[in-house]
Amino acid sequence: MPAPTHTRPHPATTGGVGTRLPWWALALPTLAFLALFALILDPSEAHATTGGGPAVAELLERAQQLLPLGR
């Protein structure tokens, strides 16, 4: 006696994005990649910092050098 087969009531959709990512879901991995990439380029500058201000400014300057967005 054959078993009954079950069919899906609605076919799966193949197009379009159903959910939107929050801004940090793309920003944080990008920031981590840029930080690690900066360490690969110049490992002599890989030292611990005591304050957060200059490190952030250096990171933004490095990112600006690597990504010529406004030029």
Q: What does the model show?
A:
The protein is mainly alpha-helical and 71 residues long. The protein has helices at residues 23-41, 53-66. It is elongated. The mean pLDDT is 75.
Give the arrangement of secondary structure elements.
Elements: H1 23-41, H2 53-66
Task: Summarize this structure as a short list of keywords or feature phrases.
about 70 residues, mainly alpha
Biggest sheet details: none
- Rg, alpha carbons: 23 Å
Q: What coarse outline follows from CA principal-axis ratios? A: elongated
The H/E string reads HH
What is the tally of helical segments? 2
The stretches of 5 or more residues where confidence is low (pLDDT under 50) are none
Structural class: mainly alpha
Helix percent band: 40-55%
Q: What's the pLDDT, averaged over the residues?
A: 75
> Beta-strand level of the residues, as a percent range?
under 5%
| DSSP strand tally | 0
Task: State the end-to-end distance.
Answer: 73 Å
What's a quick, concise take on this entry?
This protein has 71 residues and is mostly helical.
